[in-house]
Amino acid sequence: MRRVVALVSGMGHHVEDLKRAADGMGVEFRAIGFPSLSGRFGLSGPAVSAEGVDLTGVDGVLIRMMPPGSLEQVVFRMDALHRLEALGVPLINPPRAVETAVDKYLTFARLAGAGLPVPRTWAGESVDEALAMFDALGRDVVVKPIFGSEGRGLTRLQDRELAWRVFHAIIRHGSVIYLQEFLAHPGYDYRVLVLGDRVLGAIRRWSSGNDWRTNVAIGGRAEAIEPSAEMIRLSRNAARAVGAVVAGVDLLPKTADGELTILEVNAVPGWRAFAQATGIDVAAALLTELLDPRR
Predict the structure, then answer these.
(1) Claim: this prediction has a pTM higher than 0.85
(2) C-alpha to C-alpha distance for 68 and 37, rounded to whole angstroms
(3) Sign of torsion, CA 38 69 72 5?
């Protein structure tokens, strides 16, 4: 029987869904918390293990959400994943893709470098320069944490005095100011799920009430759509730019000209709302890609 381990931060819906899919496929599945990772050199026993499981001997490792930790703890966890990859263990996603996608600045650097459409963006630690960029971006910007997901921590700023206060607060907390131009949209955006060399499907996510954010995790709603050729092209290229095998790519239709802009590439995408809207068994597709990747 083939064995798969998921490295996780908690035992939520996605873990249960993966277990269901694994049982149906005759695959032994186990979810293990990231903090249990350990590695060794010059000693008997597995090079990398977790909760007594030799991770070098399993058929694949799924990387799900990593729990918070110190810089040293997070770096060690990623180092262990890189070592597993070097030892030939299949991982989804590859460690480099996880490192890239969790970092908004690095993600957009890769997307822009690949010639893909992204919002005008500025990042730095100077409040004065941030205020100048606030003006240059039309005094309507979205402030985002460089590390974050599901629409949490996003703030729209349209007042210069408030922007000054927010920028100073960010710097006082030891963070980086990350600004993007606010792009008007028709009340929805798209989430396209890429797996391997193909697009599994797409959903339209509507914002909730007067909230300009469309994330289902904060109250948005989803409906299945047929992705256009342009949506497929942009999403596949975005996943490729960050090196992701699986990616949730968020696209925004700009009302002015109908063109699409890439808002995010998530290398650890959730799929509950996506699966409910589309009827696609994402958990089974993930396990199949991990164990029998299409070449």
Answers:
(1) yes
(2) 14
(3) positive
